[in-house]
Amino acid sequence: MKFKELLDKAYKKFKTSNTNVVFQYTISIDMKIESLLNTTVIKKDMFYMKFPNNDTAYLGLGKIISHRITSKSELHNLTEKKYSTINNKNQKLSFFGGLAFNLDDENFYPWENTPKGEFYIPKILIKQNKQKTEFTYSKLINNSIQKRSILNDYKNMLSMLNKSKLKNEPIPKIKFKSEDPNQNNYIQHINSLIKKINKGQLQKIVISRLVKYSLKSRLSINKLIEYFNKQYANCFNFFICFNKNNIFTGSTPERLIKLENNLFEIDAIAGSSKRINELKSKKEIIEHKHVTKHIYKTMSKISSKLSQPKKPEILQLKYINHLSTTISGILRQKMHIINILSSLYPTPALLGNSSKVALKYIKKTEKTDRGWYAGAIGMYDENGNGQFYVPIRSGLIKNKLLLLFTGSGIVSKSNAEKEWNETVLKLDHFLSYFNKTNLK
């Protein structure tokens, strides 16, 4: 069915049902997302997500429907929202976005003027897998918009794909600016927390810090994403442009959950070292078990079948190794991924155990806001299927400032110096993009 014919059908449905209609039109295009990224200026309400398990990538521009989240209790409202749709490919409505680590407290530095959580349908969605690339144009049909303006807008969006804006932007030089906390304070915090763990006040806590760099020139997100895709093909690589002064980007190995037709997979990643042999230590194994126990306990309440390997695998990245366990299973009854996400995150991999006590000490210790770092980012569809990743190895770009987040898990057997070194090591995931001689 042609665009105008389908649009007529959407308007007819709108008039007869007297409810807003989501109109979507999809065509195949002979263009790769990588090419589009290199010819497109990064703008507000633009995102990119590339999933490692099926090699599917998404590039979104604009919004037609947006749902902002200001507290964790609001998450469940997302599952109740229903839409009338007209499309030419029988596709399900998909929502993209993410959530902050702590939904229930107000944003503060450096996350001012960004949402606590948001999911939306993009106006333009480019979807690419190994077989093809598809262009989907979406519009909300209501009384405030005329049919002719939609036709013109669609033509303009298609022509935009062929407009080249390619610029050869070199990798900028960067300079260390500050960190919060610094090494001495971080070590003091950890030693204090180890004492609290040994007194039985909590079992595990994850402490993060913020490292700030100044950029000599504009950072090309397009080239950074290209680098992530080449160097970390087994990671979820992404950016979300909240506005021109706030772009969140990163490359994370940690899948929070994938759900498809009641079948789920969850990755527990905790325990880190540059040396594989050190992952056999009691400290690393204990740290990992806190995460697997939390996931297994949470999912056992809603699963008819649950599977967990006897021993964790080794996840190898270029600069570090992690203990990794994939827990999979079948839900007892159909559930929306958002409802599972609400009870699952943040896991002890990014929070600690017990969660309430850990969060209390995190808020006391950390003087900067984690924002979406260590939260959840991904997508879901109207059937409740989807997948989410934990945005670690990530940073916030604010004009010519690069703010990187890093952290480590503290248990009774932790060594403060080693934990500090681990946070430095994790920064290399992002900093390896830059010429290291420029970091001094």
What does this molecule look like?
The chain has 440 residues and is of the alpha+beta class. It has two domains: 3-160, no CATH class; 176-439, Anthranilate synthase, CATH 3.60.120. It is built from nine helices and 23 strands. Strands 1, 2, 3, 5, 8, 9, 10, 11, 12, 13, 19, 22 and 23 form a 13-stranded mixed β-sheet that branches. Strands 4, 6, 7, 14, 15, 16, 17, 18, 20 and 21 form a ten-stranded antiparallel β-sheet that branches. Helix 4 crosses helix 9. The longest helix is centred in the middle third of the chain and has 19 residues, at 282-300. The termini are far apart.
Distance between the termini: 59 Å
Name the CATH architecture of the largest domain. 4-Layer Sandwich
Q: Structural class of the secondary elements?
A: alpha+beta
**Can you give the helix content as a percent range?**
25-40%
* Total DSSP helices: 9
Mean pLDDT reading = 93
- Portion in strands: 25-35%
Shape category: globular
Biggest sheet details: 13 strands, mixed
Radius of gyration: 22 Å
- Spans of 5+ residues with little confidence (pLDDT < 50)? 436-440
The first-level CATH class name of the largest domain: Alpha Beta
Please report the total strand number as a whole number: 23
CATH fourth-tier homologous superfamily of the largest domain: Anthranilate synthase
CATH topology of the largest domain: Anthranilate synthase
